[in-house]
Specification:
Length: about 200
């Protein structure tokens, strides 16, 4: 691994510790300054408007060779993923299954309908996961979600495939778990892609 890549990962890890409150404000200011300098110099790929949790999750996907984070990052999709991640994190107290695909494709104003309208596309899909709560950093929580997706036969293809538009988001619950979501849209329907023989 190159020294440049090692420095990038070290800075992301330090930023994650800052976000999770594990380092002092004085040290945190230095970390943020270094992080911004690396972004400006092109050292770290960051989308304009992406939150630290989204950057950490994107990096975890890329580290795992997932192509889904190579598509076009969509702020419009992020509005939807942030909203649903917050819902899942907030309802863990009242539900035995806070993580769920409910309201994705059914009902008025479903997430899939909103995603398709926002990106002017034909197909939408999503992946969900939650962490265990014992992970120490934002980066570790992100990797925990990605590992869960990669081990799932139904989620793995969505993470590994390069979609036209995407957004990954995470939200922390009061029991120290993170709820993760990836939302993807395609310009062509799944049927058209399968007939053409595109690999996922």
């Amino acid at each position: 691994m190159s020294m440049k890549r090692i420095r990038e990962r070290r800075t992301l890890s330090q930023l994650a510790r800052l976000v999770s409150g594990e380092c002092s404000l004085r040290k945190g200011n230095l970390i943020l300054t270094l992080f911004l300098l690396q972004i400006l110099s092109g050292g770290i790929h960051a989308e304009k408007g992406a939150r630290p949790d989204e950057i950490a999750l994107n990096e975890a996907v890329k580290k795992s060779k997932g192509k889904s984070a190579e598509g076009t990052w969509s702020p419009a999709l992020c509005e939807i993923t942030r909203e649903w991640a917050k819902v899942m994190a907030g309802r863990h107290r009242t539900s035995t299954a806070p993580q769920g695909h409910d309201r994705f494709s059914k009902g008025e104003n479903s997430r899939s309908d909103r995603a398709l309208a926002a990106t002017q596309t034909m197909a939408a899909s999503e992946v969900l996961a939650s962490t265990y709560g014992f992970e120490k950093s934002l980066e570790e929580h992100a990797m925990s979600c990605v590992r869960g997706w990669l081990e799932s036969p139904s989620h793995n293809p969505e993470v590994m495939y390069k979609h036209d538009y995407f957004c990954y988001s995470m939200e922390k619950s009061s029991d120290q778990k993170y709820y993760c979501i990836g939302l993807f849209t395609e310009k062509e329907s799944n049927n058209l892609r399968r007939r053409r023989g595109d690999e996922r």
